[in-house]
UniProtKB/TrEMBL annotation, chains A, B, C, D:
Cellular component GO terms held in the UniProt record: cytoplasm
Residues covered by the Acyl-CoA dehydrogenase/oxidase N-terminal domain: 17-135
Oxidoreductase is among the record's keywords: yes
Acyl-CoA oxidase/dehydrogenase middle domain residues: 139-241
Recorded superkingdom: Eukaryota
Recorded GO MF terms: acyl-CoA dehydrogenase activity; flavin adenine dinucleotide binding
Protein name: 2368_t:CDS:1
Family of this protein: Belongs to the acyl-CoA dehydrogenase family.
Keyword Flavoprotein in record: yes
Source species taxonomy: Eukaryota, Fungi, Fungi incertae sedis, Mucoromycota, Glomeromycotina
The organism of origin for this protein: Paraglomus occultum
Pfam families, alphabetized: Acyl-CoA_dh_1, Acyl-CoA_dh_M, Acyl-CoA_dh_N
Gene3D superfamilies per UniProt: Acyl-CoA dehydrogenase/oxidase, N-terminal domain, Butyryl-CoA Dehydrogenase, subunit A, domain 2, Butyryl-CoA Dehydrogenase, subunit A, domain 3
Length: 427, 427, 427, 427
């Protein structure tokens, strides 16, 4: 096994999880050696890698399947968030294939959680089952073009009840996964009650089959120059899209409740995959700076300037971030996502920041090759950059963390008052 | 006029240059309003913008032509490096069209300098004249795939004398501009005397017409997913490419001399364009954060968190970098590129760093739109990122600057010795 | 001459100023070689250095006297702010002696400006003349203990008219220079009209002779562990302190006007001295890292790790900051302090930041010796640290700069509107 | 209880340790409320706080005594390094009194470890016993003035065998604790075999009673103006100091072995105290920025600019650093100090860096008061600054960490070779 469980959490990992980690580590190490693992292209367009179905079969047989669904769900693999977090790190070393191969790739994971947590038996039968079996894929349609949707109360797609149906009109974009031909269903967020005084009760989420009439996929958006085909991040217009009223999730006005329930574990997944991606980027840098064919002025790159110091700082940053994410995962395991709000906010900010920094330094060590697609670093950078605003920009999370800290001032002040003033100011 | 000449250098700018700056500023402000200024695409491929020839005519008529060639060249516009620097900043606000429109775009500028400085009358007639007239384009083939070419002595393409010809064999990549159908000539660097004990006398540069037999353009490389067509940055194989011996520049073994003569002013151009790009990115950010349609939680983006502070810091960083670049330009004007070595090294490091930082913050303010091609920021970021290793990575320049500083220790020590020891250590 | 005038501004410096710069440079280089130049101590207390009067005589004879008072004042040396800025840099290399030796040390400089600009003939005769002659020193009493005086409208010392007198009551602290036995006069800011609806018309400034009854100097405050005796930064209580009504500066309610008039050039002085201090700290570091007696693991410190890169980055930071300060000085020369508001704000933030960074890196290169008083670095650091809130904390200036930038959005938007929308978003 | 055990390590903390943590937390919270807890001063000199003996009695009665000595020592409290780490954090909130009150203050802790680990029964009886009882204090004399002692092989104090004695000659400085009147013994490092070809076998450590003839305490050194009396950091000359040969620790030539055995746990202590100091500095900042009396421009400091964001980032930095230190502590518990070398190096670098940053931001929020001794922040900053070179400068540790990482390249390369080349470069 290449992967090492961090010393500090080893006692929190069950023997079964350790076994799965070992299997997964081998699986991921071998994934890349498949003869034709690359996404094939026809006329320069990326498509679903042809090895993916084979990999999924293999993974499922090994028990590496739906690992993300925690103990809370009977459909899940019975792992803690911390345990799956370690596995998510491993998949982060091979982002293109590994998460999907074990049926743990976003946005399907979050959507499966929604169905598992809030779905009716009918909704589960129709959508959760094929998703859990890896037969279809899905998308979550929230972000809108015309408004600042990092404040979700701005979302203005309308979801209007019309007899036994809802009629949906709106203009979404950045709907990840919606370009995949296998994407069969959208969860669409919009306003069913735009005049409700409680701004957090105006929104609902409805299930919209991807082949419903009135849906136009305008274009895939690019991230830097990547279109991330086939999944893509599409701009989509919903025009008089009609779905039966049974397609509502949880009930009208409960959209915020649903999205909040969806966020906690998903952030652990993202962040731990980011840690895995950090390790991969650092590995590549280590190979590069010790590669005799890249000598300059008679010395290995590693023997020049600040390279060694850069590597040391990367190691510190990565190890710190990993522990912080694992701590958040453990908090979710013990207190639920709500009780771990501050911890989740912190990792949401720091994991992408560390990853971008590590990627940037690794790119620099690779020179021009680093920004090309001969190495995976540039594509990883592009993807990582979006994590600084996906699910809310850094700025929003930083403010929330800061405000939670500020609240502590009251208690500190109270403790201080018990003592003479000098306690506060002295020592 | 939108552009403001920095107060500190105003007295160094001639009236004629001020007039040109005004013309150029208007020209660039209006460039974008042309009805079909975008690069057109056929089947998703970028081509030469169809407006470019029209723009070139217009610019030339206005006297905005070949401004980069300084007083040192009779073919030039007679401007100082500082004066042209200010103009380069203006073109940096519209990188796609403006530099080419005034026939001041890389790598042609550097190549024209080479021809003007070192070319024989025949070489000038055949290549410099059409370049100066904007009729053809050119490329500089130096970087190689198999070696770390940031140490140029590693370059291993062979240039072998065979009677009245040179025969060239080698594998280059990142040859910017070589994908442009109008690119008619390469300057190719390679080893004509690989066993010369003086490592800096092994190299020569030869002129290779683009249509010479034996040249294979393998592929355009991508930069964060962008292929930068039509110019592109191509991988090229030279196989038994044969050119007449008259095609050598300056003489055998003088390759290093040529590339060093080519670098100084070119860095001023790059860096000042970077400053212009900074201003553009900041302008876009100012518009975004004050845009009422992007309000979140009831407030403009500018009214949240650290946005105002970020903007202030960007302003400081940009203004500092601009002055440093102008100082370097002025040093070249007064002492030549050699006398300004430290100054040129410093701007080579700092200008791209500031630009990347400004772009990153501006992208963040734009959210997901910032990484897409609905705004120019992501493409600018990709291009700017390459500046941290083009013409030598940051690390090489930082070491050179540091070592030049270290040399000062001797003199400081001597001055200190004249005084009692406490001078050194006290106050 | 050791000092080099930056290339970019050389043409803005008159021959007379160049001559003075040369004299001053020699003077400062030699100051330290005086046999007993150290501040002597009696029982561990610092006192006025006994060499200071001798130095003042020497300097005055050389014409190095009151150089700070710009062309605007008939009492001044007739230099531009830019020219004096260069001289201030030189004095920054020997902060303990040089500024005072040429009668250009704070807070006297600012106070002399106030007297010169706003003083009545009587006020000038009594206070400005001896200050200009270096016979007395002075203090500016603004900051208060009980309120956040970075918002000067919070200042609550009362200045109440009582017949032909003003009666002053208040509790000040951080009154720099007030501990010096030669400090003979305070300019005291307080509220003469606390109920004025215009918050910026409530304040007045009065002249208070240091020996007036009712003044208690409570204690000198320390900065880190330094008490900066003899000048000190004292806590002072004013209790029923009575001065004649003629002691008001400019008139009742005009306190803000006075302090604003006092700030611009003073910031140039501070910032350029900071640049000089940077150079001194870097010089010490260069000596240290090339000192053969400090070899570790067989190599000079300069040959280890990131030292060379650190030095290179320091050089870039210092050179950038210097140019920015000189640009601000030139703006004041051309447009007055008001017209240079943004520029002055920027240098107020960046110069201390660069100095602290340079000092910190130089300290690190010195190891434990760096934090001791065997080298001047730690004391310089302590003093420099206060510059981040003296005359308003970084945060206030950053906000002001940012808001001035934000105002540009309107104009940018207007220019953009003239053109099709794509101009804004596309290259 | 105010202190919260981090979720991630809770299961690693025994019930007994949890009880001790609770007791210690209460003890430290109350320490400061003692009527005259301040270090008293006579004529401005600090002395041993008069409350200290009383506190020690109290602590010992509570079982809060010698907690630092881990399970490995029969004299110890039987705690793991991780458990004591949590307690060290708590004492970091009251650095002046708490560590000494529980007999866990440096450099005594390290010296006690040396005696416990390597001492003969006689050495233990004479020195370890009174140290464990808190009756005497001690110092470790390693650093020298004339050489760069961050490379310990440079140390040049001579320890020469003369019959039944060793004779010691050398010039030490920065000998912390040596100014304390209760300091009764020095461990002195020097060269007993300066010509040994193995550079790490030249050194020995001998026990030198503080009252031995030939020892001159030259002066206390200052740290940013603080002399840290009474302990102090003294310059000491050893001139023909003679001690019996039984005073050698472990044997001749084994100095390096001793100092290496001494370092691991001590770094956990330092780093966790730094985390506690961070929390204290943040607490003070939270109080300050929410203090209604510090309003500026009508708003709390917390409502201005970047304060909230600064606080959020501090929280992230502190929490990350704490987990990294605890991970290192746990590694020592499981694999010993040698097995945790990389982890120990990482915390040695990051904990002081975070602390300095947190202190600096907290100081800034306090304005001028922050650098004075009305708050503890400036003194904490001065002390924290020394941690960046105490026990080796950052630079040395960074290089070691980087080189350990570089070694991984071989294994990564081997794994990569098993797979087609594209594995290395793709995904």
């Amino acid at each position: 096994m290449v992967y090492k469980i961090p010393s500090l959490v080893e006692s929190l990992v069950s023997d079964r999880a350790k076994k799965l980690i070992e299997l997964l580590d081998d699986f991921v190490e071998n994934v890349s050696s498949m003869p034709n693992w690359e996404k094939e292209k026809t006329d320069g367009r990326q498509v679903v890698p042809n090895v993916i179905e084979e990999l999924k079969k293999k993974a499922r047989k090994l028990g590496l399947w739906n690992l993300f669904l925690s103990k809370d769900y009977k459909e899940g693999a019975g792992l803690t968030n911390l345990e799956y977090g370690l596995m998510a790190e491993i998949t982060g070393k091979c982002l293109r294939l590994a998460p999907e191969a074990i049926n743990c790739s976003a946005p399907d994971t979050g959507n499966m959680e929604v169905f598992a947590k809030y779905g009716t038996p009918e909704q589960k039968a129709r959508w959760l089952t094929p998703l859990l079996e890896g037969k279809i894929r899905s998308a979550f349609a929230m972000t809108e073009k015309a408004v600042a949707s990092s404040d979700a109360t701005n979302i203005s797609t309308s979801i209007i009840r019309d007899g036994d149906h809802y009629i949906i009109n709106g203009h979404k974009w950045w709907i990840s996964g919606s370009g995949d031909p296998r994407c069969k269903v959208f969860l669409v967020m919009g306003k069913s009650d735009p005049n409700n005084k409680n701004k957090h009760r105006q929104q609902s989420i409805v299930i919209v089959p991807a082949d419903t009439e009135g849906i136009t996929i305008v274009r895939p958006l690019t991230i830097f120059g990547y279109d991330d085909a086939p999944e893509g991040h599409c701009e989509i217009i919903f025009k008089n899209v009609r779905v039966p009223k049974q397609n509502i999730i949880l009930g009208e006005g409960r959209g915020f409740e649903v999205i909040q329930g969806r966020l906690g574990p998903g952030r652990i997944h993202h962040c731990m995959r980011s840690i895995g991606a950090c390790e991969r980027a650092l590995d590549l840098m280590l190979l590069r700076v010790t590669d005799p064919s890249r000598k300059t002025f008679g010395r290995l790159l590693a023997e020049h300037g600040t390279i060694v110091a850069d590597i040391a700082r990367m190691r510190i940053e990565i190890d710190q971030a990993r522990l912080l994410v694992l701590n958040a995962a453990h908090m979710i395991d013990k207190k639920g996502a709500k009780g771990a709000m501050k911890e989740i906010g912190m990792i949401k900010v720091i994991a992408p920041a560390v990853l971008l920094n590590v990627l940037d330094r690794s790119i620099q060590a690779h020179g021009a090759a680093g920004v090309s697609d001969d190495f995976p670093l540039a594509a990883m950078y592009a993807a990582a950059r979006t994590l600084r605003f996906a699910d809310g920009p850094d700025e929003v999370h930083i403010q929330q963390i800061g405000k939670l800290e500020l609240k502590r001032a009251v208690e500190i002040g109270k403790n201080a008052e018990k003592r003479p003033r000098k306690i506060v100011s002295k020592l």
